[in-house]
Structures are given as structure tokens and as C-alpha cells.
Amino acid sequence: MPCPQRQFISTSITAFLGNGLLCLFLAACSATPDTAQTDSRDPYETTNRQVFRFNMAVDSAAVEPVANAYRRNMPQAGKTAIENHLGWTELPTTTMNSLLQGRFENAGLSVFHFAINGLTLGLAELTEDPREVKPQDFGQTLAAYDVPQGDYLMVPLFGPNTSRSLTGRVVDAVTNPLSLIKAGGTATAVRSLQPPARVVVVRARQFEAINDVKYNAADPYARTRSLYFQGRAGRINARVGQ
Asked: What is the DSSP letter of 128?
């Protein structure tokens, strides 16, 4: 029998999804007629396709060329330091969500890695195996509490999401302890560069795969949607040591 507490949490969060964040996005969307939908999980397909075209235009004009320059010209030591730092900044979020999911071993490992690598602000990996920490986000936490994934949403600049994962991204952004720390001008500047740096790093890391979908797929939008659901399902279903 489902846990009453879990059912209450799930219902409460679902109500938040329906009445809060999504109102801002869906107000601009019009539902696609059922006969025109290519996936039942994508009721706003017409609007989503328009946003996808916008995102692809931004990618072609800015993200792709910058990512290409990064992967071709940045020395490997520089790439490693940047990627280590970005991974380090996400560890407090992993800690929080691991605790919420009852994955205490992963939470402890995350705290350990954050503390040790904090000696270099995450620029150098000082632990033996950084892969032993399994990244966790609030979207995964919502899934752990049986919150439905909701509708597929192509968000301007942020790309594919579901209503559940989009809510998780917002919660993670505002609850990450690093975002609450007051620091001097240099630290603030570094923090402001982290989001665009993360976009460039991810784009560079998946450069060929994304370009294959972008330029070679018969329907890049549908292919992107399929790959998103596959990848997200893999993260949701992955087991982490308790």
C-alpha cells in the first residue's frame, strides 16, 4: 500500500506544478490538436517546435561556434580544470537531493568530495574516483516521490524538459547553497560565468552527437525529444547505493 506521507507529498508537489511555475510558460502555449500530435506526451508540440527552431538558431549563431572553438583550442588541462570546477559546484545540490531521496551513502560521498576538492575550488580532482558520486537533481527527487513527469516542454534557451524536470531545475538553482554565499567581486564574476560555461562544456562534449541530430535527422525535433526521454529515464531509473 502506498505510504500516506508519500502520497501527500506527491499530491502537494503536483499541485505546485500545476498552479505555479508552469502557468508562466504554458500561458504562451496553445495545445496542439490530437490529430497533429506525434507523441502523446507532447500536447504543446506546435509551440514547442517553434521554440526548438529558435533554440537551433541561437545554437547556430553562438553556442555551436563557441563550443567548437573551446574543444579545438582549449588545452586539455584547461578543459579538465573547468569541467572539474563545474562538477564541484553541483555537489551541494547532489547532497541535498540524495538526502531527500534517502540515499545517504551518496550524500556522504558528495560531502566528502566537495570538502576535499574545495581545497582547489574544484579545479583539481583530489579524490581517487570522482565517478563514485552519482549526480542527483530535484527532478529525480520528485520522481522518487512518484510525481508524474508531466508534459514535454521545449523551453527557450534551456532546451527540452518535462514539467517535472523544469520545476526541479528551478528548485535546484534557488536552493544551491553556493548561490546563497555572499562573496567579493571576483567570486561573483566567476559564479556569473558558470551557467554559460556549463552550456559550452556540455555542447562541446556532445558536439558530434548533437550535430548529427541537428543536420542529419529527418525530424531533428522529434529525434531530440526521443533522446531526451531516453536519457532522462536512464537517470531516473539508475540505482544509487543507499
From this structure: S
